[in-house]
Amino acid sequence: MAARTRRAEIGVVDLARELGISTATVSRALNGSGLVRPDLAERVRQHAQARGYVANRLARALSANTSRAFVGFVIPYVDTPAYSAVAAECARLFSEPGAGGPGTQMILTITENDPERELRQLRELLASRVAGLVISPSAGVLDDTKRLLAGVPVVELHRSCGIAAPGVFTDDEQVMAESVLHLAAFGHRRIGYLGTPVALSNGAARLRGVRRGARLAGLDPDELPSCLLEPTQDNGQRGALELLNRPVPPTALLVGGGALSIGAAGAVRASGRRLPDDLSLVVYGDPSWFALSDPPLTTVAVPYPELARRTARLLLGRLDDPPGATPSPPELIRPELVLAGSTGPPSRP
Q1: Which of 229, 346, 231, 336 lies closest to 287 in space, CA to CA?
Q2: Contact 175, 334 (CB under 8 A)
Q3: pTM over 0.90
Q4: Which residues have CB under 8 Å from 111's CB, separation 6+?
């Protein structure tokens, strides 16, 4: 455990010494006691924030069993295939004896892609003295969040916010280009794209792949009908219907996101369109889910168990790194385009 608690931690005693006041006064100021003058309390709070101080709320709980370690797992959603699968597998891997040591526990927090909520939850995790963090940052992550992340071993998952930390990501750009070329090879010229916003690093990579595939297929990327929405099942249904109900609907639909794909597949089925006679469909995520469809859906298949294994291994390795160690390069996992019965030539009028 010595390696897990190695980072420099600022305590009440340090703040009191630096400010030249008593530890009791510092504690009262940080706890909002009315016994401290407002101007002094504000000075204490500002100094504590500048020094990166967070209250150790789990210290008493952990003191009875110092061999236990906690790691945080910060994700935007838990009801999507990608995050639910990876979170479940990481929780299992962290708790295995010989991985992080017996009793290693994962604390899961859900940000709902809200930067303010993300910051609050991160502060709570650091107050709990987690040994390290896995985070899939929100779009528009705050500067305060980045500063806090600099003080703890971190591994980014799925998305990157530009911090000096290693990460595990899907290499989506190439496979999305291949998906467009697959549809174009059947003769599709109106290929609709339903994806995630470019403010998300993985959303930007997928859109780059779609546009690159369009250029390689001799299509104008700017003329491809597209809809970029937050990755939820409801948005998948809404976005697919918006594309399919256009005056000139696409003859093929490519979806870039697991939750979006589930919603889009439901919308296509509800619209009465037959696959692939009326519409070709390529989805994203776990092919075992989409193999249950009739016909099975052509899928950009992501190996979620491998994603989880690499993430857990990378974080556990970071816990033993010395402070200030140079982060390892990002680890990229390339999805595979698994062909099935949902793609074919466009129907003729």
Answers
A1: 336
A2: yes
A3: no
A4: 74, 75, 76, 117, 118, 121, 138
Q: What percent of the chain has pLDDT over 90?
A: 57
Give buried/exposed letters for 10-19 (b at 16+ CB in 10 A, else e).
bebebbbeeb
Domains parsed from the chain with CATH numbers? 1-53 (1.10.260.40), 58-169+307-333 (3.40.50.2300), 172-302 (3.40.50.2300)
Cα–Cα distance for residue pair 156/310, rounded to 1 Å: 11
Listed in sequence order, the residues at least 6 apart from 100 whose beta carbon sits closer than 8 Å to its beta carbon are 69, 71, 94, 131, 316, 319
Comparing C-alpha atoms, which of 259, 292, 228, 56 is closest to residue 158? 259
CB 344 within 8 A of CB 186: yes
- CB-based burial label for 35 (10 Å; 0-12, 13-18, 19+): exposed
**pLDDT category of residue 202 using cuts at 50, 70 and 90:** very high
Q: Write the pLDDT tens digit of every residue in 97-111.
A: 654 444 578 999 999
CB of 227 within 8 A of CB of 194? Answer: yes
Tell me the two tokens of residue 71: 């790691």
CB proximity list for 85: less than 8 A, separation 6 or greater = 286, 304, 305, 308
- Count of residues in the chain: 349
Q: How far apart are CA 214 and CA 224, in angstroms?
A: 8
